[in-house]
Amino acid sequence: MIARQNNVVRRLMSVPGVGVITALGFAATIDDPTRFKRSSSAGAYLGLTPRIYASGETMRSGRVSKRGDDFLRRSLYGAANALLTRIPPFSALKSWGLRIARRGGYRKAKVAVARKLAVILHAMWIFGEPFRWSSQEPGELASLQ
């Protein structure tokens, strides 16, 4: 009922894999999208970036940092899983995730797609645009056919 009344949540739900719970959780956790200077900061805020270990001679990047809201991080991971495995239509995001899965495995791909979902959801919220299934504009698609 809350999701139906909120235009932002309905717009976020237009992303494949993102449902009511994930969209409401994202809207509640981020709250004010203008507090992030860049959309890529939303992924880092949620702990979906690699943890860096650095000392005098050694620098390693490891698993995700797990900072931020655990519920939303898990919800975005579930949305990424649904996008990669359950949703049949292809999008630029899905093909990008499947290329990562081919190189590094599905677990890494799901985390990467979850981080990218956070970035896309934040950008959609800031600019007020719906999800684009392809990287080309609609006018460009018509001219190619």
Summarize the structure.
This protein has helices at residues 2-5, 7-12, 20-30, 40-45, 70-85, 92-104, 106-127, 138-144; strands at 50-54, 59-64.
Helix/strand layout:
Elements: H1 2-5, H2 7-12, H3 20-30, H4 40-45, E1 50-54, E2 59-64, H5 70-85, H6 92-104, H7 106-127, H8 138-144
Antiparallel strand pairs: 1-2
Helix pairs in contact: 3-5, 5-7, 6-7
Question: How would you describe the overall organization of this protein?
Answer:
This protein is mainly alpha-helical. The chain is built from eight helices and two strands. The chain has a two-stranded antiparallel sheet with strand order 1-2. Helix 3 runs antiparallel to helix 5 and helix 6 packs antiparallel against helix 7. The longest helix has 22 residues. The C terminus is likely disordered.
